[in-house]
Write the structure tokens for this entry.
Amino acid sequence: MEQHVLVVFPHPDDETFGCGGTIARFAKSGVPVTYICATLGQMGRNMGKPFFATRESLPNIREAELAEACEALGIQHLIKLGLRDKTIEFEDPEILITRIERILREVRPSLVLTHYPGYAVHPDHNALGDLTIRAISRLSVQDRPIVHAHAFARDCQDVLGPPDIVNDISAMSEVKLAAIRAHRSQSQLLLARSADGHFKDQPAKNSFSHMLKQESFWTYHFS
Amino acid sequence: MNPIDKSIVQPALDSFLNREVYLHLETTNGAYAVHSQESSMTVGAYIRNGLISFKRGVITGDGPYRVGLKLELGWVYAEGLTDFEMDQEGQLLLAGHDQEGRLAVALELSFYPFDL
């Protein structure tokens, strides 16, 4: 049984698509979940379908969507770092590592969910995953939480091997779907495509329905 | 936003002439363009709060539209613009959305800085 789960992702919706079922499972069993969300996803290109957001209204809309998704998943504590979408890799890493380290020492999580640096496609994912790993590395070995890292680059299985953590989230699929719907500016197109069979030619493991059944992670091994 | 009406957007552009104005200019094909195999390259660029002054600004085309702003020492250019919005403070938002409603290009002008 985990004592406290800390989730660290850059964009509102990363927590839902990547590990919403896993988070909901922890929350439902009474494990406190804290989420560090680094940006407001200000530069996303999805604006809803039909689009209802503008480049200028998107941050406020996504902030409200995030609150609704956290409520759905059972995330009680949300920490927003106030960074700007697409800029994390250009910030002074030392300042961000120190901020994350301070939160780690306060929250004292037993488990951290974050992106696997180098295998998470979006530069913000890779940068924040790396900063989080570096912050955890600064804790003494006995104080370090376990890290379940999320990866989805096309080559990740070739390099990392199969994921060692495969969570069956089928009991949480409705909760995850509610959180996906809460991120409406980002999910309406996906949901519409899923409904009209757009993904039916994709491998089963990438399908939308698979996303509601299973979530996979790699345990990060500190060198 | 509403579909671009040149008879509204052209005077809106003119309202920014010969003043120091803040510019947001971007284009993107999505952070997952390569990953989702939509494109062979993930391409994007943005300027947030560039401070410019232009002496001539024109919207042209039959939709999608193009905008060119002539500066003392250069140009600002965007194509593929489809929709616009103008707020009470005079902030002008122009964007180009694809068939799925995703933003592909944006050109915005404001007398005060855009939020960070």
User: Anything to note?
Assistant: Residues 6-14 of chain B form the longest helix (9 residues). The domain at 2-99 of chain B is CATH 2.70.180.10 (Protein Yojf; Chain: A;). The longest strand of chain B covers residues 44-52.
